[in-house]
Amino acid sequence: MSGHRGFGCKKWMVRIARPGQTAPIMTKTMIVEKIDALPWDDLRAGIDTEGWVATGPLLSAAECDRLIALYDREDGFRGRVVMARHGLGRGEYRYFDYPLPDTVAGLRAALYPHLAPLANAWAEGLGEETTYPPDLAGFLDRCRVGGQARPTPLLLRYGPGDFNRLHQDLYGPLAFPIQATILLTDPAAFEGGEFLLVEQRPRMQSRGEVVPLARGEAVLFCVNRRPVPGKRGFYRVVMRHGVSRLRAGGRHALGVIFHDAG
Q1: Domain 26-256 belongs to what topology?
Q2: Could you give the CA distance from residue 210 to residue 219 in angstroms, rounded to a whole number?
Q3: Residue 119 CB: number of other CB atoms within 10 A?
Q4: Does the predicted TM-score (pTM) go above 0.70?
Q5: Which of 49, 131, 194, 221 is deepest in the core (most CB within 10 A)?
Q6: pLDDT tens-digit profile of 202-252?
């Protein structure tokens, strides 16, 4: 998959703050422009072929710092999960509440339309009747009708010894098949803590992937299952994701899940 990284996408020019000034906040318009400029044909091909692809940095260091700083605030979240209490690993995460922070809402809304065509192609390949609307608002309306109205984007925090067991983020019958995770911490600030993907194909041993990410970079990956062409049509490949044990330092990440929870 290393060949899918980079893709020659356009550089994103932002105004640099002068010494002593706060770096500018990324607006929703800036997010849309950044996301739309990505080489989506290549990115979708990467996800379709391997089950994941890295985008290159989407967020600046200042924007990553702003999101990390939200973690210890009392407001803006609907719940906190300590992983060890539920057998999920070690570390913790917090689910955002509505209204989402502008950066998170902007990323979610801007990414979805570029992923919906692949989601629909996967549904057809899997023989499913589900179809996905062309925009996030239409999809979330469908989630609410189905009783899934709680927001799922989340901030994750890991310290030394923490890890996240392999899992799938499925919060109800209606689940969008692709999601995003953005690394918010500089990789030089921690050891271990690699983003992991494991793929299971029928009658084969599982295949694992370690996804190297730069600060502010997203990995787009299959949430549950995707179709892969074989000699007799498509067969189902199941994927799970997690984070390896952190040996030193601290790690924050943003999870962008498109379906809401019941």
Answers
A1: Jelly Rolls (2.60.120)
A2: 11
A3: 21
A4: yes
A5: 221
A6: 877 888 999 999 999 999 999 999 999 887 778 899 999 999 999 999 999
